[in-house]
Fold:
Amino acid sequence: MSSRLVALGVLVVLSVSACGQGAAGQAPAPSVETVRSGASVVGTVPPAVLDPCALLDPQDRSTAGITVLGVAKEINGARACDWTVPATFGVTITVDERNGLKDLEVARKTATKTKVGGRDALKVADKKAADGTCAVLLGMGEKASVQIDVSNTNFTDTPLACERAVKVAGLAEPKLP
Structure:
């Protein structure tokens, strides 16, 4: 019974502290998945409750060099959270519950298959453009993904943008269902 109370408590905390909300009238997914914090199971919540702003806690933000709070937004119907460190870089995490890695349109010449934790991922950067942007796309089952996009403010140093994207992906990945 106490594990049910813990799960209910986690759900209430996530609901109250959520910085991003789903679109009005959007039905939650019927399945329930496990949300993990580090190596331990914290509780279960529907995938539709996954809040991109909650994927980086204060310690994670500090580790990644993010000194600001995230701002909830929506990108193409998907929940997202944006952190902009003035005069340095920005990070956007998008939770896409409709498109798995295989469904995302990514130019083959810019994508590299990789793993983050035990999860399939793609690192996407156009090295020829050298535009200071990089993304890490994490698979979350067959029909969902989490996308971490990093842009350096001066739009230079793509390797640094990729280093930041990989670091943020590694911090967020253990919290994904």
User: Anything to note?
Assistant: The CA atoms of residues 56 and 172 lie 6 Å apart. Strands lie at 33-37, 40-45, 71-75, 78-85, 89-96, 111-116, 119-124, 133-139, 145-152. Residues 1-46 have pLDDT under 50 and may be disordered.
